[in-house]
Automatic annotation (TrEMBL):
Organism of derivation: Pectinophora gossypiella
PANTHER family: CYTOPLASMIC DYNEIN 1 HEAVY CHAIN 1, DYNEIN HEAVY CHAIN FAMILY PROTEIN
GO CC annotations on file: axon cytoplasm; cell cortex; cytoplasmic dynein complex; cytoplasmic microtubule
The UniProt record lists the keyword Metal-binding: no
A Pfam family this chain is assigned to: MT
This protein's UniProt keywords: Coiled coil
Taxonomic superkingdom: Eukaryota
Name of the protein in question: Dynein heavy chain coiled coil stalk domain-containing protein
Organism ancestry: Eukaryota, Metazoa, Ecdysozoa, Arthropoda, Hexapoda
GO-annotated molecular function: dynein intermediate chain binding; dynein light intermediate chain binding; minus-end-directed microtubule motor activity
């Protein structure tokens, strides 16, 4: 398989291959000193190593791509959430203005109701005062009527007597008076 690496990845892969090659070379040198023998490293070993590197690179790349996809999905969801929050904030601002307008209208209505109630209470007090004045006036009129009736009762016999006296005057007597 071909390793389609970016320049910085290619350099890292090359450096890893060089490091493994040098490490094997040093390990072989130590083995030669200690045991007086070496490991035979053939081109086939080196090709197997390269295939393992390609496989490892592909696995790591797939893992990274999966992580990248996962992060992109997460970022997409965050962006979507931000958009929803902005929409909600706009909606909240509109509803807040509506609420404020309705509160102001309700407060104005309440003030009007309080004013109307105060006016009604004032008129009720005035009505009660007029009622009291009417009752006083009615009592005064009744007292005056009783006084007048009492006076009339005293005068009535004299009036009846005068009427009778006037009736008893004869025409002849009136002619004589003239």
């Amino acid at each position: 398989g071909e390793v389609g690496a970016r320049p910085q990845h290619r350099e890292a892969v090359v450096n890893a291959c060089v490091y493994v090659h040098q490490t094997l070379h040093r390990a072989n040198a130590r083995l030669a000193k200690r045991a007086n023998r070496t490991m035979a490293i053939t081109p086939r070993h080196y090709l197997d190593f390269i295939q393992q590197m390609v496989k490892l690179y592909a696995e790591k790349r797939a893992d990274l791509e999966e992580q990248q996809l996962h992060l992109n999905v997460g970022l997409g969801k965050i962006a979507e959430t931000v958009e929803q929050v902005e929409e909600m904030q706009k909606s909240l601002a509109v509803k807040s203005q509506e609420l404020q307008a309705k509160n102001e209208a309700a407060n104005a209505k309440l003030r009007q109701m309080v004013k109307d109630q105060q006016e009604a209470e004032k008129k009720k007090v005035e009505s009660q005062e007029i009622q009291v004045a009417l009752e006083k006036q009615t009592k005064a009129i009744e007292a005056k009527r009783r006084d007048v009736m009492a006076d009339l009762a005293q005068v009535e016999p004299a009036v009846i007597e005068a009427q009778n006296a006037v009736r008893s005057i004869k025409k002849q007597q009136l002619v004589e008076v003239r």
